[in-house]
Amino acid sequence: MPDSGRFTFPAVPAVLLSIVSVQGGAAIAKGLFPLLGAAGTTSLRIGLSALVLLLVVRPKLGQLRSAQWRAVVPYGLALGLMNFLFYCALARIPLGLAVTLEFVGPLGLALAGSRRWGDAVWALLAAAGIALIAPWHGQGVDLLGLAFALAAGGCWAVYIVLGQRTAAVLPGQQAVAIGMLFAALPVLPFGVASGSLLSLTPHLLLLGGLLALFSSVLPFSLEMQALRTLPTRTFSILMSLEPVAAAISGWLLLGERLLFGQWLAVGFIVVASVGATFTARRDAPAMVGD
């Protein structure tokens, strides 16, 4: 009999709501960039997210074994660097393109070491998507923004590998809460050096709280709930819709319009991601991204 005192979303709507929440959070973050910069915004999001998760989860830090520390510390550092690089990209290029290019990291991880000819098709399709986005004539999309997005994707791939190792030695909620604490370490020096954190006001703290809620606390909770009943492959396919959701969110919330070729690139990478998921040799634990 279900627990009538606790409301839970069905698995698929929970994942879709998580995707919408993350993109709404990204729109809030982009609005904070002119005031706090990418470093200050990342520091505010991760700092408040860590505080909320530590208060809610209350992990027993003193009881962690050395093997758990060795797993969760690099996991947290990768999480922080991934978010910082993504926000650096988001400050320079449209939301839809940033998320699309970031997805190349997990996609590359899924295809790494594969010897199936079908996977080569997905790799070529993803490469075609990147080629469509790249400004070959020196105009259009910011090159440094593209580089930041691809670097964030590389960190996402590392984060998935480290997350799998962490999940094997530490329960999921504790891993996220403790990892978020260490995620602040590679980001805070840049936030402090920028001086933007000194100009925080109650209004900016409120926006930072909403950013932490929509970008971290709510999606993490929804995705953990969904993964209890949803097969990992189904989860991965649903998450492949994120670049499309990002492009639509950027258009509706930020007025960012993509060219036809850029929409085509988003489509190529989404199809490559879904195809790679279908032809994967085995399911792997799915990890949350930005």
From TrEMBL:
InterPro entries: AA-Vitamin_Transporters (IPR050638), EamA_dom (IPR000620), EmrE-like (IPR037185). Keywords: Membrane, Transmembrane, Transmembrane helix. It is a multi-pass membrane protein. Pfam families: EamA. Residues 144-275 form the EamA domain. The chain crosses the membrane at residues 7-29, 35-57, 69-87, 93-113, 120-137, 143-163, 175-198, 204-222, 234-254, 260-280. It is found in: Membrane. Its main location: membrane. Belongs to the EamA transporter family. This is EamA family transporter. It comes from Hymenobacter segetis.
